[in-house]
Amino acid sequence: MKSEMKKQWDDIPLKGMLPQDLKSRMWKNIRRATIAKTKNVYRWMTAASVILVMTAMGYQFFNRTVNAERIVVTQTFDNDIRLVRLPDGSRVWLNEGSKIEYPENFDGSARNVILIGEAFFEVEKDSLKPFIISSGLIKTTVLGTSFNVKAYEGAVPLVEVRTGKVKVENKNGKVFLVKGDAAVYMPTSETLVKKKALKLEPDYKKELLDVDGLTLEEVVLILHKDYNFSVEYGAPDLKMLKIKGTLATKQGITEMLNTLAFALDLKVTEKENHLYILSR
């Protein structure tokens, strides 16, 4: 049974995104927890790799070469939202069923990316190198700002701006947007129309919290904004432990704290009145 379980573990596609120490600990925990539940092993391990692990990488990524330039392609699928970090430090929340392509390094005079689907961008400022998104019928140009681009194949393209200034253009014209503005492509006239944005930040972005480089205490303070709970630390130094990756907020506060604890090799003890104790 051990060899069969190990084979199933090795066949899980998501497992390749995990740090080696987390993979080792997950495998040991899974063996203990599922030794008498062989029929549910694959289902349990797949869920564990999705729910209990934080990752800063895209769900699927690979390199290809175009004109001697290495291109990175990141793609998401159904019920899958990922955070992508670009070479210049910009962050992209890629919604489900979407794909983004970008060079391994932004060496040219512009930072060019290609988007199919929907993504929220937080672009690092660089006045000498504009950030350009080609997404089907429209092109979006910025220097440093945050905004959402929705350009699924067969759907009407839409750009909504949260901060900064954005230029959106197509073959028949262009519009300039600032915070709270949106650009909508009109299929009949093949023109862009400027409107008020319905949302400054899409709901799907909130489902994935970027905690990379933050301390455990900093992450807990962020979670306090949306959840009613309190935390006690078994030792003062636990507050300063650094987190890597992203955190799925759909889990609920108990599951998120368990995710953090698992990543840091800690224990979580739940008490009354939404009190959680984190210890080694």
UniProtKB/TrEMBL annotation:
Keyword Membrane found: yes
Report the coiled-coil segments.
none
Which residue ranges run through the membrane? 41-62
Q: Where is the Protein FecR C-terminal domain?
A: 212-277
Task: Please list the residue ranges annotated as the FecR protein domain.
Answer: 75-167
Family matches, as Pfam families? FecR, FecR_C
Membrane in keyword set: yes
Record InterPro entries: FecR, FecR_C, Ferrdict_sens_TM
What's in the keyword line of the UniProt record?
Membrane, Transmembrane, Transmembrane helix
Q: What is this protein called?
A: FecR domain-containing protein
What is the organism of origin for this protein? Answer: Flavobacterium rhizophilum
